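Reopening: structure tokens for the S-adenosyl-L-homocysteine complex, inputs below.
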Amino acid sequence: MTLQFEALPSRRGKPPRHLADLAPEDRRTAVAELGQPAYRADQLSRHYFGRLLDDPRRMPDLPAAVRDTIAGALLPQLLTPVRELSCDDGATRKTVWRLFDGALVESVLMRYPDRVTLCVSSQAGCGMACPFCATGQAGLTRNMSTGEIVAQVVKGAAAAAAGDLGGTPARLGNVVFMGMGEPLANYAAVISAVRRLTDPAPAGLGLSQRHVTVSTVGLLPAIDRLAAEGMQLTLAVSLHAPDDELRDTLVPVNTRWKVDEVLDAAWRYAAATGRRVSIEYALIRDINDQPERAHRLGQLLRDRLAHVNVIPLNPTPGSVWTASAPEVEREFVRIVRSYGVTTTVRDTRGREIDGACGQLAASVVE
Ligand code: SAH
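Re-run output (same inputs, fresh job):
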């Protein structure tokens, strides 16, 4: 098996340039290159990031002639919705998006009593080949651009604000990079996207850095790079097994960076940022749910700045694996907690619409 750590060279060219690809100072340069005064860049930012608008016809402060030039050059439609599915009484909504070159990605919007969270994709497909994950089965198509990543959030925030999640309008406050792809294998685009999400409005969306979670299989050099960015992001590490023998099979990148190395990088991240690291553990019946493994996990995480997030396995089509029995799950959690490690069980939002963790496969039947 070959793991793909870097972008595959694209045979089909890059996604069109978008306002969201550009840092604020580069937006002014881009507008100047179109023969427009620099303040137009701020107007566009206010519309796109501040008001979540990308339709130039709804930007009355831009003269009609200018709208076409600027909008054509800086606000191309990067995402076309191909399919939308809801469940949980409208509180969970999955959208399948088509990108400019036909690649498909998905994002999932989830409304909870106290918050709205969007799960975004960072790559079309994924090269990490985890055998229990639907996206991992399909392989990597390509990296997404910053603009494509940010557009999922702007569209999600606009839908939440419009009251599309059942009930009253709500503010999108949390973003998790837990959709399709390995975010740290698309490092530059993901970091710029995070800056667009967390820069104060109207330069960016003004989300709190702490409310943005980057989830990784454990690409060690990239974890260290992330720790050096000086941001307060939440890091999630997909551990899924406390021992190398099993983790080599569940998360194949473990053959390159071992459990101890990945956890050491996680603790360096915690030390650099003061942030508690989230350790993800997809609980799979008779595979990684034994009491010995719970003890080993507790021992590894005891007295660390860590939190365990147990994810009941969402079975993917064709897989023989399934979630652990409820009493096995309870016992697993009890043992890990007995080491003083805070542990929660993730709810299984979006199951019926294949929108739960690891189910995103972007299959579209037309
Ligand atoms: N590439 C990143 C983001 C992937 S999705 C990463 O691996 O962290 C976010 C989480 O969902 C990861 O912890 C992933 O391992 C988990 N996951 C994938 N498939 C799953 C499945 N079928 N059931 C439960 N969790 C799954």
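The chain has eleven helices and twelve strands. The pocket of S-adenosyl-L-homocysteine is lined by residues 128, 130, 132-133, 178, 182, 215-217, 238, 280, 282, 311, 313-314, 316, 357-358 (CB under 6 Å). Marking as resolved unless the reporter disagrees.
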